[in-house]
Amino acid sequence: MSIPFSPWKPMVRAVVDEAPASPGVYQLATLVRTVVFIGAATENLSETLTLHLNAPATLHPHLGHLYFRIVPLENPEHTQAELLGEYRGSHGGSLPAAQMTQPPPSVAPRRHLQAV
To answer: Which of 6, 49, 86, 112 could potentially form a cystine with 16 if both were Cys, beta carbons 3.0 to 4.6 Å apart?
Structure first.
């Protein structure tokens, strides 16, 4: 699949703010352009990328400075699924690093007090 992605850009607020406010697909990568996340913005690419900037814990903590590239599309979920399928096919079935990590499940606190 040949998708007309934009050139790679640094993941900094000033550049992310220039992203279009339309649906689309994006990739996040390291300095050497190792793709760590393939995402779909169903409504607004700029807002979705800003969420990644505001919550860096959603990505792997040891990735360092990130870069992104985008392509505005009307049906981003379908294209994201195709891109993830291609990625898995060329990486032994693995997902990108940041998509493999999931937040730890929240555990309800236990009461350790006993009635006397």
So the answer is: 49
When divided into structural domains, the chain yields a total of 1
Instruction: Please give the full DSSP string across 25-75, using - where no structure is assigned.
Output: EEEEE-TT--EEEEEEESS-HHHHHHHHHH-GGGS-TT--S-EEEEEE-S-
CATH of the domain at 17: 3.40.1440
pTM of the model: 0.80
Give residue 81's Cα distance to chain centre: 13
Do 65 and 15 form a contact (C-beta atoms < 8 A)? no
Rg (CA), the chain: 17
**Could you report the per-residue pLDDT of 12-67, keeping only the tens digit for each?**
999 999 999 999 999 999 888 999 999 999 999 999 999 888 876 666 556 678 89
